[in-house]
Design a protein that fits this description.
This protein has 155 residues and is mainly alpha-helical. Helices cover 77% and strands 0% of the residues. Mean pLDDT is 83; it is low at 1-23 and 148-155.
């Protein structure tokens, strides 16, 4: 059997390419940080606009709905390779879109002085935000590595 230095070089180059490509992939930490930064920004902006949910100002509520929808778009644009983080991403996006929609429905109902539709919108808003605590705790636990993550976030 002949020794071929050429074959060995190809193996070396192949390993370098794999190592180089894996170095280019975002780490779990950076992927976590991307999602958490968007989630924190959305929560902060919505709370500031609505005085922690205490405002009756429809314009402020509409701005909060717009901010939440923007956060959904930003989160959707984040490319993730980690399947668990993809599940959290989907959960946040669905929650943000449902929350923004229910908020807009509430604003419309109150503007039309339609008490029944406003009550339905409030129920939808409560339902839309229900997964928030589990999503936040789940992603924080997963990203800090403190415990095994749930199979997928509640939706």
């Amino acid at each position: 059997m002949r020794y071929s230095p050429r074959g060995k070089n190809w193996l070396g180059w192949g390993l370098m390419v794999v190592v180089s490509l894996s170095a280019c992939a975002p780490s779990k930490v950076s992927q976590c940080n991307s999602l958490i930064e968007i989630a924190n920004g959305a929560a902060l902006e919505a709370n500031e606009l609505t005085d922690d949910g205490q405002t009756d100002d429809q314009q402020a509520m509409l701005q909060a709905a717009d901010a939440i929808e923007q956060a959904a778009q930003e989160m959707e644009a984040v490319e993730l390779s980690d399947s668990q983080l993809q599940d959290y991403q989907t959960g946040f996006i669905e929650m943000y879109r449902a929350t923004a929609g229910a908020t807009r429905d509430y604003i419309e109902a109150t503007g039309n002085q339609d008490r029944s539709a406003a009550d339905v919108a409030v129920a939808h808003l409560q339902q839309a935000t229900q997964p928030e605590e589990e999503l936040v705790q789940g992603i924080n636990t997963y990203c800090t590595g403190n415990a095994a993550p749930p199979a997928s976030p509640a939706q």
